[in-house]
Amino acid sequence: MVAQVNPASAQLGDAKRSTDPAFVLRDVTVQFGQQPPVLKDLSFQVESGQFLALVGPSGCGKSTLLRLFADLLGPVAGTVSRRSDVGAGQIGFVFQQPNLLPWRTGLQNLQLPSELGRSAKEVRSEEELLDLMRQVGLKDSDKDKRPAEMSGGMQMRLSLARALVNEPRILLLDEPFAAVDDLLRMKLQEDVRRIHDERKLTTILVTHNLHEAAYLSDRVLVLSSAPALIRQDLQLERSSMTAEQRRTAEETMRSLQRLTGALFQP
Amino acid sequence: MGEVAAPVIVFLLVISAWHLIVTAGRISPVVMPGPMLVLDAMIKIRSDLLAALFRTLLAALSGLSLSILGGTITAFVFSQAAFIRRALYPYAVLLQTVPIIAIAPIVIVVLGRGFAGIVLISCLISLFPIITSTTTGLLQIDSGHQDLFRLYRASRWQILMKLRVPTALPYLISGIRISSGTAIVGAIVGEFFVGSSTPGLGVLIQRKFAALNLPELYAVVAVSTVLGAAMFGVITLLGEAILKKWYGMSLSGRR
Lengths: 266, 255
Known about the structure:
The complex is a heterodimer of chains A (266) and B (255). In chain A, 34% of the residues lie in helices and 21% in strands. Chain A is an alpha/beta fold and 266 residues long. Chain A has a six-stranded mixed β-sheet with strand order 5-6-7-3-8-9, with helices on both faces. In chain A, strands 2-1-4 form a three-stranded antiparallel β-sheet, with helices on one face. The longest helix of chain A is centred in the C-terminal third of the chain and has 17 residues. The radius of gyration of chain A is 19 Å and the shape is globular. Chain B is mostly helical and 255 residues long. Chain B has two domains: 32 residues; 221 residues, MetI-like (MetI-like fold). Chain B is 85% helix and 0% strand. Chain B contains eleven helices and no strands. Chain B starts with a helix and ends with a helix. The chains are: A alpha/beta (266), B mainly alpha (255). The interface between A and B is medium-sized, with 23 and 21 residues.
């Protein structure tokens, strides 16, 4: 039940690279000022290509973990190491809020990632960006709309597309589906899993929805309240079924039962 | 429709009441002229009024432009560090509290009796709202947007140009809107004290008062008031148009 921990190999041969973990956390502690630590001596690793869900009570430090992975935050103790062949700009992050720039149109919002940073980036053509919009279920006509003219769901889709602009190897999702209605959430979840599979990403999803964690991910970390400790590390079976098929599948239900068991056991 | 009709009705009621009080109370025009006398005076000195109006408008627009320039630069400096704000903000507040009438003599001494002095007074009185409003805007970045820019390793310059400035723009416009009316007041007060060979509205007010020509004095005051309101109105419409183009929405819709 507990994840196999491979000691990070010192030599990074090309053959080994694909199996190197995406992230390794060692004894990570995060603390803000004089407050009690949010994370304390936490160690685990995230395998490349894995779809990992982080589940736990609100305020337990799930979002803090994502910010550590994105390098938006540094630990006060311990180390967070990322695969050496994944650059800083190759992380996509879908925040809880869409965080779109209100003065930019849909297309201009997608152009933002390639405009930022010091290193010159490959600028995506309009056709490539439109294709990206279609992949997340947006229409070509949405490119000229400003965020204020979009529904909450459209904004979330656009922010998902924006996270993919720089061809990320790692995708971080911070409860991206919390604010959208059920129907749309189901569609977005399928899109995310499909994007994960097609692009061979490493995806880390923070969620408080157990069902979502059970049928989307390959592995679920159940965290206790702050400071976050790993209460359970579950590897879930995954068949070749689509997210839609998995939604009602027996194995998902079994996973869900294990998850609920893990959460409620004393 | 009611938005236009209601103030117009109030205007007509006040004018009628004024007319009634003056005629029924047999108040001498030397004390308080009636609205008809004022209208006559306005028509009589219309060419003088028009010339003075343009003169004052020019002074106010110059003063306001200087305020916008100086205010945004100051706000930019303020936005750079908290200690700069702490050190300089009290002096910005002094701009607002110093009686503008009291510094007019100082301005005259420094700049002499001329157009430049009038522009400076108009600028001083309209500077503060632009500084505070724009500083607020520059510091008002959404923490989500900040995360986004940090995620993509944006430079300080990129954060300024692509995030802070666009965020501050509606605040700058709102500051200019507040300042537009006071810039006119500043120009008139400036003219009142500094004087000028080419008379603006302030100089006209002074002359009509000295001659105790009350109907014409009232006429100048009325034109001054309308000028201030018109300036506020035009700047508001202009600001709305810019925001609509920029944000695709109106300022009133966001606040």
